[in-house]
Specification:
two-stranded antiparallel ribbon; 13% strand
Length: 209
């Protein structure tokens, strides 16, 4: 009899777990993140986040995968199996301008939307290097952008830097929220306030797919 009761309880419990789906509303997910102070930067170097790896094993590193995804009129270096991008055009999300990319001229960077230093100070310092490598090479956290603006941003979060193109700000902070949620990073109070302010202007903003 006891076994029947336990089984009945399980049958009523399991479907609730299966049907439960995480929200894709950026503000809802933001409010689910832990809020803490920024941890010390002690021990941080970019070498702690091995980047431009080929985690998806498609033969191209994450940098070139991002250029292939974000640029148009792409031309590849011969003999690289359409992997190494040597030129193309970028509609820069940060400025709204069209930028010509050339492998011989530094006009475009691959930005870590959640800067690696920021990730380190909001939880990644406690991760193993394998997880940090995922953060550094995850397409969700990578965007091809104007190199000048990327360097202007440096390791800033939403409280200290936002793209000049206001039409992109909602998508930008939603991507930061998505990365932080995926890797269980926290946000600081000023960061949360800044992101909430942006998302209040675009109610219903979804996380990037």
């Amino acid at each position: 009899m006891r076994r029947i009761v336990v089984l009945a309880l399980l049958l009523t419990y399991i479907p609730n777990q299966v049907n439960a789906a995480p929200s894709d509303d950026a503000l809802t997910v933001l409010n689910s993140l832990s809020v803490k102070g920024r941890a010390a930067k002690t021990g941080y170097t970019r070498a702690q986040f091995t980047h431009w790896s080929d985690l998806d094993r498609n033969g191209c590193d994450a940098r070139n995968d991002t250029l292939k995804r974000d640029l148009t009129e792409v031309i590849y270096k011969a003999g690289t199996r359409d992997c190494k991008v040597i030129s193309g055009l970028l509609l820069d999300p940060y400025s709204g301008k069209v930028i010509t990319f050339s492998s011989t001229k530094s006009t475009i960077d691959i930005d870590h939307v959640v800067a690696l230093s920021n990730a380190w100070q909001t939880g990644a310092a406690y991760f193993d290097k394998g997880v940090r490598t995922q953060i550094a090479n995850d397409p969700l956290n990578l965007l091809a952008v104007d190199s000048k603006l990327n360097r202007q941003k440096s390791d800033g979060d939403a409280a200290t830097w936002l793209p000049p193109s206001k039409s992109f700000r909602c998508a930008y902070v939603a991507r930061q929220v998505a990365v932080k949620a995926k890797y269980k990073l926290w946000v600081t109070e000023p960061e949360k306030v800044a992101i909430t302010k942006i998302l209040s202007s675009c109610v219903g903003q979804k996380l990037p797919a």
